[in-house]
Design goal:
Helices cover about 65% and strands about 5% of the residues. The chain is an all-alpha fold and about 325 residues long.
């Protein structure tokens, strides 16, 4: 392939983000081989978009080395994301946070692809109204649970962990949309945060998020952590609280007695309204016409809801059914 063809190749930032850079030594060795022997291994691309092999592509482009390409047949950006995730998870030299992100990202896109293909199959069957047997050639599972189980078996982790990584991937994508440099540092392991801390980050106000960004990217602290930032944040929140000018009326005797069932019963009364809203959305919405941004936002919030529900349910089951004699 000529260099003119190479100049037509492009790099998509969402795909590039998922590919860990080579170590300095490996990059130097690759550059030496390319300068000496030329591009003997093809650059893998989808249409005109580079999928992986970014260092080889950049070195060839910078030094005018003729490139060859291997075209991967994919049907959409979601399939391209799934392919890159699967490819990169074969590597042994990627950071642990990136490995978790890739599993979670693959889960999210393959879950969406499976649901989309299942919906197309149902519409096709309904429109034909015949007894023709439709053969399912869909490589993706029709439900999120099946996708979790399949990826859990493939990567030797619990299916609940796959779902947890999916939430992590959604939150990291949110952080990246606000501050790409911060997302890069989290994936590389330069900023250490737990899953619970990332959930907290996703719930920060815009002002608090900006404070956090400045702390992690501009701090002189050699080992910045979210725990340190949270302590600073709590101090700022205390300062921002408007002081009470007059003490509340009444006495201790007037205060209602603590009810251990209060919050739990309140939540139990609220859940049916959530279910009603979800059922109403399913009945009146045409998901094939929903914008990508709106759909992605709802998927992200539903994943957070599922994780939170599973967490509180596990605690309740442990206490109610197993923690008492």
């Amino acid at each position: 392939m000529t260099n003119s063809m190479g100049t037509r190749l492009r790099v998509h930032p969402d795909l590039r983000f998922m590919v860990a850079p080579l170590s300095e030594q490996v990059h130097t060795e690759l550059k030496g081989r390319l300068l000496q022997n030329g591009c003997t291994s093809p650059i893998r691309v989808w249409e005109n978009t580079v999928l992986v092999d970014y260092e080889a592509f950049e070195i060839c482009k910078a030094h005018g080395i003729p490139m060859t390409v291997s075209r991967i047949r994919l049907g959409s950006m979601e399939e391209a994301i799934a392919w890159v995730c699967k490819n990169q998870l074969l590597r042994k030299d990627i950071p642990e946070k990136l490995r978790q992100y890739l599993i979670g990202k693959r889960f999210l896109v393959e879950k969406a692809l499976g649901a989309h293909e299942a919906a197309k199959g149902r519409r096709s069957a309904a429109s034909e109204m015949t007894t023709t047997v439709i053969v399912d050639n869909n490589p993706y599972d029709a439900t999120a649970t099946k996708t979790c189980e399949r990826l859990g078996l493939e990567y030797h982790i619990c299916f609940v962990t796959v779902r947890k990584y999916g939430i992590f991937a959604g939150i990291l994508d949110y952080i990246r949309s606000k501050e790409p440099a911060l997302a890069d540092k989290i994936l590389s392991g330069k900023i250490r945060t737990s899953h619970e801390h990332l959930v907290e980050i996703s719930q920060l106000t815009p002002m608090e998020f900006n404070r956090m960004t400045r702390y992690f990217l501009k701090t002189t602290d050699r080992r910045p952590t979210y725990i340190k930032f949270r302590a600073m944040l709590e101090e700022n929140r205390k300062k921002d609280v408007i002081p009470v000018t007059a003490p509340p009326t009444g006495t201790i005797k007037d205060m209602p007695a603590y009810d251990p069932d209060g919050e739990v019963c309140s939540l139990a009364l609220t859940v049916p309204s959530w279910i009603g809203s979800i059922n109403r959305t399913q009945s009146v919405s045409d998901f094939t016409k929903v914008s990508e941004s709106a759909g992605a936002k709802l998927i992200y919030e539903l994943d957070r809801l599922v994780y939170t529900v599973e967490d509180i349910r596990a605690k309740l089951v442990k206490e109610v059914y197993h923690g008492r004699s």
